[in-house]
Amino acid sequence: MAKGTFGQRLKSERELREVSLDEVSQATRIARRFLEALENEQWNKLPGGVFGRGFVRSIARYLGLSEENLLSEYDLARGESANTPLQKPEERIPSPPRWMPVAAGLLLLALLAGAIAGGRYAWKAYQAHRAQKKSSAIVSLPAAAQAQIFTTNSVTGPLDLSMVASASTHVQVVADGNVVFDGDLPSGEGRRFAAADRLEVTATDLEAVLLELNGQTVAPLGTPGSSGTIVLTQKVLRQTTGGDTQR
């Protein structure tokens, strides 16, 4: 596909429907600069992998275009390939001197003894800190929050979650009961998480978080600026919505 063909078609389809970039951005929660980068085929200004494809899916759905056809044109224009890079041949490492394993073993035992001495105290402090953060997150949501359950296609096997923010927001991710991320997620930055059975995503602006679970796009939920939690399992998606909150 010649350079500019994909971007020109995307722009033509948008203008044919008399829709501005700001209207597309507001409807899809995709930053205007990403929309402009797609229409100008400025790939270096876009997040790669599933996030760029997620943008194309959302735009196609909003404009009433075939998602698969537009994705095929996008992949062809960007020149992405599903082939994995060849692994480098294994390099042989010379065998270390005989005394080195003994010295390493003694050093490891010394470090292990020191770690055990302070390990219990550090673990208790960490558990208390995590429990306090969870409690704060729960208190920050309004008491009148309502839960809604959205069924989706059955997902089998481990959960693989890809996330990108269309606008800056604070996000907490809990995988199988463990907090694996808690911090600010800038606009355009992506993250990836995995879990065996359950993932919980809490955000101060839930609609600004774009998610893909095991390759399936999760439609944005909530209203702009609203906080909430979305629970991802192998069978259902459950969202807890709340009012505006600030952390």
What does this structure look like?
The chain is an alpha+beta fold. Among the domains are: 5-78, 434 Repressor (Amino-terminal Domain); 146-241, no CATH class. It contains six helices and ten strands. The protein has a six-stranded antiparallel sheet, with no helix packed on it. A four-stranded antiparallel sheet has the order 5-2-7-8, covered by helices on one side. The termini are far apart.
Ranges with pLDDT <50 over ≥5 residues?
A: 81-87, 135-152
What Rg, in angstroms, do the CA atoms define?
A: 23 Å
Q: How would you classify the helix and strand content by structural class?
A: alpha+beta
How big a fraction of the residues is strand?
A: 15-25%
Largest sheet: 6 strands, antiparallel
- Strands, total number: 10
Please count the helical segments: 6
Name the average pLDDT. 77
Q: Give the helices and strands as they follow along the chain.
A: HHHHHHEEEEEEEEEE
- C-alpha geometry: elongated
Distance between the ends: 46 Å
Regarding quaternary structure, what we see is: single chain
**Largest beta sheet: strand ordering:** 1-10-9-6-3-4
Give the % helix: 25-40%
List the helices and strands and how they pair.
Layout lengths: L4 H12 L4 H8 L3 H8 L10 H14 L3 H12 L20 H42 L5 E6 L7 E7 L3 E7 L2 E8 L4 E6 L2 E6 L5 E5 L2 E3 L9 E6 L2 E6 L6
Helix pairs in contact: 4-5
Please outline what is shown here:
By secondary structure, the protein is an alpha+beta fold. It has helices spanning 5-16, 21-28, 32-39, 50-63, 67-78, 99-140; strands at residues 146-151, 159-165, 169-175, 178-185, 190-195, 198-203, 209-213, 216-218, 228-233, 236-241.
